[in-house]
């Protein structure tokens, strides 16, 4: 999640050890850990196979690859795949983002400076301004843009021919893309969360590159707490490495990994302080719900957007929390995970209970 979207965000993904967005340190380390070609890329087997066919065919034709749309949660490898596309095609890559393109002129300046075959990576493409989006339609389809010169009745459109290029768009919210834009991509792929075994491969590869000693059980322990996300796995690996160097002999075992992640408040399912705070409030204060999102956010001392966008998606995916028309409710797995016993039956007349959905409503 980006701060531009939620200015009140106080415990964002970039600040959490298990957050999937990248901060400055992550960006620098990821550059060194990123695989350079599809053969090195771990996971996403279907996407890799399909993308390999697209790129091989383009190289055989001696042309540029079709435009590519990558969707999925942060930290799954969309930026890495865009760089691999450029490397596989032997082309340079230009990187920008949707929020940086707020006017059609911004996009025109970028497009007009592209060289033939260049890859343009547009991150968070769903946040691009509407005028720039409409200009992109023509650029993707006809490799041409119309530059408007002048204002009012005297304004004229000057067509500008563009060299063939490949646009790689990345989005965490594919549903926000308008159909005319989505339909202009020749290849679309959705990035799935990783299985623990795949994350273990990522961790072992990163450990070799970082010159970190880790055994199979240590890698498995970190993978199990990485929320299905390679970026989080690499971040946890670096923090466990620090602990192993300072408080142990440098070798990461299951025991050392568990001790290190306990220090950083990441439990055995990957929940951190914020996640457990949400569950604790839901269970102890509201008897498991239903409770409205705003009320729940106040109870944990966070902004509504922080709870909804940062904590909830993982809790729902883990089957610990459910969203209902009456509010958020805890599942039996949440009670078990937090070591609490659910009440025999919810008090029907309690404020915010089923009889009074308005008080704790969303």
From TrEMBL:
- Which InterPro entries would you find in this protein's record? AAA+_ATPase (IPR003593), AAA_lid_4 (IPR041445), DNA_helicase_Holl-junc_RuvB (IPR004605), P-loop_NTPase (IPR027417), RuvB-like_N (IPR008824), RuvB_wg_C (IPR008823), WH-like_DNA-bd_sf (IPR036388), WH_DNA-bd_sf (IPR036390)
Q: Does the keyword Nucleotide-binding apply?
A: yes
Q: Compositional bias (Basic and acidic residues) at which positions?
A: 1-14
Which keywords appear in this protein's UniProt record, sorted alphabetically? Answer: ATP-binding, Cytoplasm, DNA damage, DNA recombination, DNA repair, DNA-binding, Helicase, Hydrolase, Nucleotide-binding
Quote the EC number: 3.6.4.-
For this UniProt entry, what's an example GO CC term? Answer: Holliday junction resolvase complex
Q: Where is this region: Disordered?
A: 1-20, 337-362
Q: Positions of the region Small ATPAse domain (RuvB-S)?
A: 195-265
* Residues holding Mg(2+): 79
Chief localisation class: cytoplasm
Q: Which residues are recorded as binding DNA?
A: 304, 323, 328
- Biological role stated in the UniProt entry: The RuvA-RuvB-RuvC complex processes Holliday junction (HJ) DNA during genetic recombination and DNA repair, while the RuvA-RuvB complex plays an important role in the rescue of blocked DNA replication forks via replication fork reversal (RFR). RuvA specifically binds to HJ cruciform DNA, conferring on it an open structure. The RuvB hexamer acts as an ATP-dependent pump, pulling dsDNA into and through the RuvAB complex. RuvB forms 2 homohexamers on either side of HJ DNA bound by 1 or 2 RuvA tetramers; 4 subunits per hexamer contact DNA at a time.
Q: What is this protein called?
A: Holliday junction branch migration complex subunit RuvB
What is the organism of origin for this protein?
A: Streptomyces radiopugnans
> What is the taxonomic lineage of the source species?
Bacteria, Bacillati, Actinomycetota, Actinomycetes, Kitasatosporales
